[in-house]
Amino acid sequence: MEIRHGIPVSPGIVISEALVLDSEELRIPQRFVEDQYIDSEIDRFKQAVDDSNKVLDLEIKRLGEEIEIHARILSVHRDLASDPVLHKEIEQSIRDNSFTAEHALSRVMNRYVRKLQDLNSPILSERIHDLQDVEKLLLSTLLGKRIEGLSNLQDEVVVIAHNLTPAQTAKLDPKMVKGFATDVGGKTSHTAIMGRALGIPAVVGLDDISTSVVGGDQIIIDGYRGAVIINPDEGQIAEYRARALKSEKLSRRLKSQAKLPAETIDGHRVEVHANIELPSEVESAVECGAAGIGLYRTEFIHLQAPSSGEEVHFENYRSVLESLGGLPLTIRTLDLGGDKLPEGGLEEENPFLGCRSIRWCLANPGPFRAQIRAILRAGELGPVRLMLPMITSISELDLSLQIIDEVADELRREEIPFDENIPIGVMVEVPSLALIASHVAGRVSYLSVGTNDLVQYTLAVDRGNEHVASLYDPMHPAVLYLISQLVRTGQEHGVRVSLCGEMASESIYLPLLVGLGLREISVSPQLIPEVKQVIRSLIDYEVRELSARCLQMSDGEQITRELHRWAVDHFPEVVDRF
Ligand code: PEP
Ligand code: MG
User: Fold this and answer.
1) Ligand 1 and 429: CB distance under 6 A
2) Closest ligand to Cα 452
3) Helix H segments across 204-271?
4) Which has fewest Cβ within 10 Å: 170, 257, 307, 510?
5) Is residue 256 classed exposed, middle or buried when 0-12, 13-18 and 19+ CB atoms within 10 A define those classes?
6) Ligand 2 mean position, distance from CA 435 (Å)
C-alpha cells in the first residue's frame, strides 16, 4: 500500500484496476498466472528476451553501416535486455508472486527507473529512457498481437499516465475509464477541465505516479482530496467505499433539486450556466439544471477534425441548440494554442504567451471567418451569443469586430439568413483588458471573466505546471481586485458581467463571488446542482459584507481561510466531501 498526494482536479472517488499508459499505449491485460503455469511463464519471458535480441541484432547490423550512433544506442539496449541480474529478478518475481511475465517485467523495470529518478542526475536520465525503451520492446514482444489501446477496453479501469493531452482525454470512454491520474498538470489545465466534463474523478501533478504503478495494480483515486492509493488494504477499501457511497447519496439529492432556481434566501437570482467541450455534454447540462451554455469551447471541433469548415461548425451548433430546447448558447470562437496545439501549429517556447486564441484566429483568417459565418447563421436557429477569447487590447477587439462585420456583410450579400443582432461579448482573461474594461464596455454586449487564464496571467503562474501549482491562487487580492472592478464597471455601463472560469465551481468561493455582485456564472455541468444549492443557502447582504471584508485583506491564504470558515458554518455537508 502506498498513498500519493497530488492536485485534485475532478471530484469523486473510484476504486479500480490501473491501466498504465505509455506513449505507445501498451497495456498489460493480466496480472497473475495459476501456479501450474509458472514455469511456462518463465520460459515465455526467456523466449521474449531471445526474440527481442534477435530483432535488436538485425537492427544494429543494419544501422551499423549507416547511422553508427543509433546502432550504439541499440547495443546498450541489447546489453540491458540480456542482463543476467535483471533476468534473475524478473524470474524470481514471477515465481514468488505468480505474476505474469509482463507484470513482473514492469514491476522490476519500474523499480530501477524509480531508483535512477531518485538520484536526480541529468546524466542518468538517459539511462532511464534506455530502461523504458527496453521495457517497451520486451513488453511488445511478450504481448505480441495482444497489444491493446484504449479503444477496446473490456473492463473498467483507471488510466495512469505521465501526461494526457486535452484531445487524448476527450477520447476517453467514461463507461470504461472511471478515473485518471497523471504525473504532470494543474487544476485548470484543459486536461483537468476535460476530466470534469467527463464526470470522472481525477488527480494530477503526482510527479512519478506513472512509474510507481504497474498495470493491474488496484488503485483508489480520491478526486476530492487529491489522494491516490496504490494497492490499498482492506480497511482503506472499506473506508473509501463508505465515503463514495455517502458522496453519491448527496449528489443524488442535489441532483433531484437541480431544476430549482439558484436564488439567495433574500431573493437574488443567479443564473448558473454550463461550460461544455463536446456537444454530448448538453443533455447532462440540461438535466443538471443549467440555465444555458455559458461557454462552448469549440476548439475540440477543430482538434478532432482540423479541416472542419463552416458546415461542420454549423451542424454542430445546430445539434447543440436542438438539445438546449430554447436555452441560450454562448459560442466561444476557437481558443487554439497553449495546451491545445492545432495540427501543424507553431512549436513555441512559451505557448501560453504566444500565438494562442484570438491571435491564432487573426493569423488564420480562413478558419476564423468560416466559424463566424457558422455562428451568425446558427443565431437564426436559437438564442446564440458570440464570445471572443483572450482579447488583450482595443485594437485587437476592433479588428475582430471588423471581421465579424465583414462576414455579416458577406452573408447579407449572399442572402443567407443570420442573426443581425447577435450579442457579441469578450472574455476578460488578461489583466490588460480588465484594466481598460471601461473602454471595452461600450463596444460589446457582455463581458465574461475567464479566471483560469486571468489568474495565470495576473500572477505569472502557468496554470498547467504542477511545480508552481501552490502559487496559482485564485484568491490572490490582485485577482479579486480585478474581478470586483470589472463587476463595478459592468454595472456603471449597463453591461452584463458573467464568470466562466473554474473559480465558480469551487463551493467555498461562491459566497464571495455572489457578494461581489456576480449574477451569472458558468461551470462544469456535473457541478451545477451543488453550485445552485450553495447559492440557495446564501443571504445577499451577508455575502456582500463578507466580500467587502475579504477585499480588505492583503493575503490570499487569509481570504481562503475566511471563506473556508464561512463554508463550514453555512454549508457543512458540501465542504465535508473535500
Ligand atoms: C478561462 O480561462 O477561465 C476559461 C474559461 O477559458 P479556458 O479554460 O478554456 O482557457
Ligand atoms: Mg481561457
Assistant:
1) yes
2) 1
3) 209-212, 234-256
4) 307
5) exposed
6) 17
Residue among 77, 190, 268, 313 flagged as catalytic: 190
Active-site hit among 355, 361, 500, 550 = 500
Dihedrals phi, psi of 222, to nearest 5 degrees: -105, 95
At 10, which amino acid appears? S
- Nearest CA among 16, 491, 441, 71 for reference residue 228: 16
Q: Which residues contact 180 (CB under 8 A, 6 or more apart)?
A: 158, 159, 160, 161, 164, 169, 172, 195, 200, 202, 221
Sign of CA dihedral 477, 525, 576, 234: negative
Instruction: Give dist(CA 540, CA 520) in Å, integer.
Output: 14
- The yes-or-no answer on residue 500 being catalytic is yes
What domains can be seen in the chain, in order of their start residue? Answer: 2-25+148-250 (3.50.30.10), 35-142 (1.10.274.10), 257-575 (3.20.20.60)
Residue 132 bridge partners (DSSP):
none
Q: What is the bridge-based pairing of β-strands 157-161 and 177-182?
A: parallel
pTM, 2 dp: 0.81
Angstrom CA distances, 565 to 384, 478, 480, stand at 40, 22, 19
**Closest residue (by CA) to atom 8 of ligand 1?**
452
Binding site membership of 456 for ligand 1 (Cβ less than 6 Å): no
CB 508 within 8 A of CB 457: no
Strands, E assignment, 132-238: 157-161, 177-182, 202-204, 218-222, 227-230
Q: Which helix or strand (DSSP H or E) is residue 438 part of?
A: helix 437-441
Residue 190 designated active-site = yes
Give how far Cα 92 sits from Cα of 43, 45, 97, 100, 205, Å.
13, 12, 8, 12, 33
Per-residue DSSP letter, 533: H
Atom of ligand 1 nearest to the CA of 275: 5
Tens-digit pLDDT string for the chain (578 aa)? 899 999 999 999 999 999 888 644 566 666 788 899 999 999 999 999 998 888 888 877 766 665 666 677 778 888 888 889 999 999 999 999 999 998 899 889 888 888 887 777 766 767 777 887 788 888 888 877 444 556 667 789 999 998 888 877 887 888 999 999 999 999 898 889 989 988 899 999 998 898 888 888 999 999 999 999 999 999 999 999 999 999 999 999 999 999 999 999 999 999 999 999 999 999 999 999 999 999 999 999 998 888 889 999 999 999 999 999 999 999 999 999 998 887 777 778 899 999 999 999 999 999 999 999 999 999 999 999 999 999 999 999 999 999 999 999 999 999 999 999 999 999 999 999 999 999 999 999 999 999 999 999 999 999 999 999 999 999 999 999 999 999 999 999 999 999 999 999 999 999 999 999 999 999 999 999 999 999 999 999 999 999 999 999 999 999 999 999 999 999 998 887 77
